[in-house]
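Backbone-to-sequence.
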């Protein structure tokens, strides 16, 4: 037996072993064979060790890099060389006076359209190779149709960028606004680590697998926490044996575009 075949068999057996001996909270019904999941690690840029651990995760796991951070530009370059998608993790105003400061480069509620466009450009300069944008915090702004319209128009004008709505607010209209302004858009389904314990992260993994069972695709966002890395480093190698593929967000965008075109064809009136 050739080494490549042997290695594939070993990886598959290892994946199955890890799955059966994972915490019970990680197990879920088997998704369909065509199941695909996009994964993003947010808040990259402040720690080279955490950034490199995110980049080293198996498969096309994307990294969302905060602007104006000490290591953001270098990590974005490393991610691009490793074949990982890079997103600008765009800080935005959050709801409530007690919310953590989103950090430098944030989009603020009182900004004019020109200021929003200038801030977006300034932030993108510090995150090379960005192919998309997702919001860092932003629970206040992603509910605001006027501000989202201005931001999405600015993203559209730059060309070639998509928007991933992190959905930090259940009332977010960001993805809808993006679509209205011609910006390809996706939405987060699951946060991996709202609770940081490993058992909690495994519970989030189980939620992802339930979604995959129901509809065949999902998007998850995690953060550079040790618990999140530990779980992903264990879960990701077992996916191929279970018929699940981690795919770039670009693949999910193409899949979504194809379904939209199919729906348009189905609803188009027939002519004699």
């Amino acid at each position: 037996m050739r080494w490549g075949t042997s290695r594939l068999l070993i990886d598959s057996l290892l994946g199955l072993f890890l799955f059966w001996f994972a915490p019970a909270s990680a197990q879920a019904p088997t998704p369909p064979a065509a199941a695909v999941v996009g994964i993003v690690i947010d808040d990259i840029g402040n720690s080279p060790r955490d950034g490199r651990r995110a980049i080293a995760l198996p498969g096309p796991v994307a990294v969302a890099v905060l602007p104006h951070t000490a290591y953001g530009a270098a990590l974005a370059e490393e991610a691009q060389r490793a074949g990982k998608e890079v997103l600008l993790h765009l800080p935005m105003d959050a709801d409530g006076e007690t919310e953590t400061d989103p950090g430098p480069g944030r989009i603020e509620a009182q900004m004019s359209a020109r200021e929003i466009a200038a801030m977006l450009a300034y932030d993108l300069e510090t995150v090379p190779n960005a192919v998309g944008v997702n919001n860092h915090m932003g629970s206040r702004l992603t509910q605001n149709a006027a501000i989202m319209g201005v931001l999405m128009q600015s993203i559209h004008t730059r060309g070639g960028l998509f928007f991933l709505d992190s959905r930090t607010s259940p009332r977010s209209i960001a993805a809808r606004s993006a679509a209205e302004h011609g910006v390809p858009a996706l939405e987060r389904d699951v946060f991996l680590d709202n609770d940081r314990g490993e058992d909690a992260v495994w519970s989030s993994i189980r939620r992802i697998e339930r979604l995959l069972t129901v509809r065949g695709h999902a998007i998850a966002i995690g953060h550079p926490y040790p618990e999140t890395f530990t779980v992903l480093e264990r879960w990701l190698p077992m996916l191929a044996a279970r018929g699940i593929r981690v795919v770039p967000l670009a693949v999910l965008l193409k899949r979504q575009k194809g379904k939209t075109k199919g729906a348009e064809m189905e609803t188009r009136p027939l002519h004699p």
